[in-house]
Amino acid sequence: MSQIPLIFERSTPGRIGYSLPALDVPEVDVRENMPEEYIRVQAPELPEVSELDIIRHFTELSTHNHGVDSGFYPLGSCTMKYNPKINEQVARFPGFSSIHPYQPESSVQGALELMYDLQEHLAEITGMDEVTLQPAAGAHGEWTGLMMIRAFHEANGDFERTKVIVPDSAHGTNPASATVAGFETVTVRSGPDGLVDIEDLKTLVGSDTAALMLTNPNTLGLFEERILEMAEIVHKAGGKLYYDGANLNAVMSKVRPGDMGFDVVHLNLHKTFTGPHGGGGPGSGPVGVKEDFIPFLPKPILTKKKDQFVFDDDRPQSIGRVKPFYGNFGINVRAYTYIRSLGADGLKAVSEYAVLNANYMMRKLADYFDLPYDRHCMHEFVLSGKRQKKLGVRTLDIAKRLLDFGFHPPTIYFPLIVEEGMMLEPTETESKETLDAFIDVMIQIAKEAEENPEIVQEAPHTTIVKRLDETQAARKPVLRYRKEG
What we know:
Blueprint lengths: L50 H13 L21 H7 L2 H4 L11 H18 L3 E3 L5 H18 L7 E5 L5 H8 L3 E5 L9 H7 L4 E6 L12 H10 L3 E6 L11 H4 L3 E4 L19 E3 L11 E5 L2 E5 L16 H37 L15 E4 L1 H4 L5 H9 L7 E2 L8 E4 L7 H20 L1 H5 L12 H6 L10
Parallel strand pairs: 2-3, 2-4, 4-5, 5-6
Antiparallel strand pairs: 1-7, 6-7, 8-9, 10-12, 11-12
Helix pairs in contact: 2-10, 4-10, 5-6, 10-13
């Protein structure tokens, strides 16, 4: 298949794809008082194309992008699920899309009411006492939550709590966020069952423990069954529990982090609550806290006084503002629409179907790939390509081969504790027919690895861009168009 012609290659001298209105303000020579070396002496070489050509160019490019609206996206740990179009319609209501953050509070009461109501809903879903919508993404929410844990300990004169315990199966953002927040990270091992090794945890917890960061279900897609015991161990030592909400899609309306013993939780609205995910964002990572942490929430706090919704800046113990204005409002509108559309029973059904789909797919593939943790999973599961690696086919090759069939590959080589790992999350929004089609392709690839490994090793064969030389791409990336000759 040929490459898409670049816009420069479509260029023909003299063609124009735009028109501008007549200038109605005085002309200004921007070169005045500009250093000589910054003044361009030749006009830039820009493509000269008609409006029709440029529309066709970008439309053609868009058809070669993979997205959740165009194909199955089983990206484990990321919850790449369908974004209902009603969410988009509501987010575009003029009363939401045309307001400005500098407007007086009295003129945006509807938007503030939505945000306040969303905070209340998220607090109920997670079992927290109060929620802030400020953080702009999941990792930003992690950092915000850890900064509040730090502020809490310091407010109590407990300056020696400098360590955050993180499982060896954790998301990479967990230790990164802890480090940025000024903590030292300590790794707790997973046991042979894929769950946190309680005995190892006991040896790590002490007077220097600030918090345990945990995802439940964990990154292997397994529910941490001894979570109450872990909470007791950490709390008894004076530490706090932080909940990474990346996998909340598996347990909504089934169990709440607050009831598991967690003190602080962040949510990924762009994962669990169907904000658009990927392509650069924006995300949204609200943080919920138990009562002891309310004084440390980022300010301003959105609150209700009498019949008015207002921002409260009078928070002397607050960690301060963590984002300009107040979160990514459009994503919050989408999440609110999703929650109100489904209701409590609908959110419960989301989790049930997500878990059902994952277990169905896992059992269908278990005979063809290694299954390192052969037990009931939650919303996602991890396979291993060790069997295929012995035949000369790596997990990376399997991922590339999937592209030939129009499927986005799963997360690969993660978590790090699984050799040749493939992490799959089908989500609740995919039909049985889609799951079966993906399963059939995975089985076909497993057979190809045995009978014709070259076809997998050299994949993809049908995509616009073939397999890259990854070493060369990393060391000598081509980041801009260069005219040949």
